[in-house]
Amino acid sequence: MGTVLNVGAGTGSYEPGRTVLAVEPSQVMIGQRPPGAASAVRATAEHLPVRDGSVDAALAVLTIHHWSDLACGVAEMIRVARRRIVILTWDHAVFREFWLVRDYLPAAAATDAKLAVPLERLTVLLKNPEIQPVPVPHDCVDGFGGAYWRRPEAYLDETVRAGMSMLALTAKHLLQPGLSRLRQDLESGAWPARYADLTDRPALDLGYRLVTADLAS
């Protein structure tokens, strides 16, 4: 794609080099964008401030669960893009089997279920969409929910948890029992023994999905 519009761009962590404009509703996020990042405008997915067909592709990475009107946001992406729609999201039916939420933090699993956009609800809004699994590498440096699946001690860090919607939006008193058990299991060696099958895995499918639709087809 020659030109890309990044919708719900945040601080620009996922921004491809050919991004010509980033759309982000939070001024705080815009203020944290690094020097040299694409120009950013404060706006929402439901009201993209660009002309029809003005970019090759519209991109939305781990953001659609924050939108107030999914159908409107997707329609706006289709309106402004000439060639392709690209959306990274996740399938809660897969993610809820992640050891962290299944075995330690069921309250976070409930929050995740409320946040997650069902894939069928998204794909019905696109013409001939393709869905590709996006396995999470064991050394992933980002801070989304499943990033530390092989580094469980990271979930004990309050700063790390604050960057994950499912944990930040779950009452702390509901998380503490599970976090305490996780800490104990790491100290006793129970966690590495229980999840020994993860030790040598380079990547893990936690339900993250890349949904694409070619508009010209």
Describe the structure.
The protein is α/β, with parallel strands linked by helices and 217 residues long. The chain has helices spanning 27-31, 70-80, 92-95, 99-104, 106-115, 119-123, 158-162, 165-168, 172-188, 190-194, and strands at residues 4-7, 19-23, 40-41, 55-61, 81-90, 130-133, 136-137, 203-204, 208-214. The protein starts with a strand and ends with a strand. The relative contact order is 0.15. The mean pLDDT is 94.
pLDDT under 50 segments (min length 5)?
A: none
| Multimer state | single chain
The number of distinct β-strands equals 9
What's the arrangement of strands in the largest beta sheet? 3-2-1-4-5-9-6
Strand content: 15-25%
The dominant shape is elongated
- Terminal residue distance: 15 Å
Helix fraction, binned, reads 25-40%
Estimated structural class: alpha/beta
- Radius of gyration from CA coordinates: 18 Å
**Major beta sheet, specifics?**
7 strands, mixed
SSE string: EEHEEHEHHHHEEHHHHEE
| Overall mean pLDDT | 94
Number of helices: 10
